[in-house]
Prior knowledge:
The chain has 353 residues and is of the alpha/beta class. The protein contains twelve helices and nine strands. It is globular.
Amino acid sequence: MKSSKATWIILMLMVSLSSDMQARGKKSSNNPGPPETRKKFEVYAHRGARSYAPENSIPGYTTGLAIGTDWVDMDVVMSKEGEVIVSHDIRLNPDITRGQDGKFITERKLAKTLTVDELKKYDVGRMNLTSSYSKFFPAQLGMDGVTMPTLREAIRFVNGKTGKRVGFQIEFKTDPEHNDWTYTPAEFAAALYKIMKEEDIVTMCEIQSFDWRCLYEIQKLDARIKTAYLTEWDNYPGTPYSFWDPNPAKAGLWTGGVLVKDHKNSIPQMIKDMGGACWEPEDVELTKETLAEAHKLGLKVVVWTWPEHSGTTFDVNLVSKLIDWGVDGIITDDPGMLNSMLAARGYRVPARY
């Protein structure tokens, strides 16, 4: 029958096409294989997605989750009554903070001196476009009525959106040069840990800080907590502030007195010895050799960018090099750009919510 013959021809063509596609896939060295076989690379949406939406805010986290991220990044301070608040700044930042009169503030009050209610009267949804800070984020969408969330509010929002499938990277904001500006590391660690337990996210977090004293304190509270030790390019010899400063008081200021000279003159070794799970160096300070050393010690290595230092929020050439080197993740203001680069290289990219 003509219909049977036509069906047979179509089937043969389909088999031939399938075989040809399989053969081409096997021959192509660029075929990444099915998603589950691709190497995982972790994306951290810095302060939400600072390139596109107000930092450390619910709209910022909404944006980061919609773009796709493995971790939401947030900084925390403490209010007058001891509540943990999501904010990068120990003192109110005039570059992003407006008062009830709609004007950008000029007085930099300490978060520690203000109650939650007082802090929530400030609007952090827009950048002061006359500031040098704003020049790094030309695509950020300004908004009105954006307030500083409490840490609990941010956690519940993210978990509600994702079903607890995205991790939390939380950074203590303190200053060893001005200890009176904040609560003590022990008080801060206790307040943060209480929230982590009550919100059931202890195993979903990486807790980070430049002030290593805070990390020592929270490690004492629960062995399950993964701590991430932040460093920057200035920690290296020949720079204004260095772990190698001949004055022990300066060399150990941000490490709680721990000196690199007592740990084989190695920052990764020092972090490993102090109980850290992760080293988080500034991207421009990392070398292939220090990355290999950290990995050999069993440390996870996640890099970050300082736009004011690098001159840009996203250096494509540097990011490409770091991916090739084998870093474990990148903390970025632009998770969309990072996800695109990962997708092009056949990496798994994070789910969007």
